[in-house]
Amino acid sequence: MYIVEFEPAPTHMDDRVVCSSGLWSGKAHSCLGLLCFDSFFIYIVVVVVVVVVVVVVVVVVVVVVVVVVLVVVVVIVAVTIVAGSSSNYSSSGICGSRVVVVVVVVVVVVVVVVAVVVVVVVVVVVVVVVVVGLVVVVVGLVVVKLVLVVTTAVVLVEVVVVSVILIVAVFSSRIAESKEVIIVYS
User: Fold this and answer.
1) Which residue ranges traverse the bilayer (predicted)?
2) Which of 28, 50, 85, 130 supports an S-S bond with 97, CB 3.0-4.6 Å?
């Protein structure tokens, strides 16, 4: 008599989860079609994505703060220069103050534009690197799993072929022995 024990299916995400192939595994997997990915790789991908997102957010926040500070400084300087020049009745002083204000404004605008361009370039590069890295990881895992599946299939086919050959050989030897016995007793 054979006693068959059925293991209950998990009701929540624990250290094991059923893959789409219907097989149990000793550690957590995430199933994609017929492929089961190790949780270790999933954790790595999640950590990489979180780190990249945090870095991008920090860079953007720093650039925004710098731009805001520069704009506030320019406004304060411009207001101060204009207020000082308005109390001065010499036309040369007013003209000189306006030139200074224009130069400061142009410099700040250039700095802001450069900062925005740098932020955009950094964000695009980071996103591209993350996407390419994730694609490479997923493709690598898929290739590894497919190689394992193909190798397992080949081994199973070889086992079946060898088993069939052995069964045929055993039956043929039994038939030959029975014929000899019949011949002997006849």
Assistant:
1) 40-61, 67-87, 99-132, 138-171
2) 85
| pTM flag (> 0.90) | no
Total count of domains within the chain:
1
181 inside domain: yes
What are the structure tokens assigned to 108, written together?
A: 């700040």
Q: Please classify residue 36 by burial: count the beta carbons closer than 10 Å to its beta carbon, then call 0-12 exposed, 13-18 middle and 19+ buried.
A: buried
Chain CA centroid to CA 125, Å: 15
Rounded Cα gap, residues 29 and 18, in angstroms: 8
Helix axes 91-185, 39-86, angle to 10 degrees: 170
Structural domain includes residue 93:
yes
Range of the domain at 66: 29-185
Asked if residue 13 is part of any domain, the answer here is no
> What pLDDT shows up at residue 138?
76
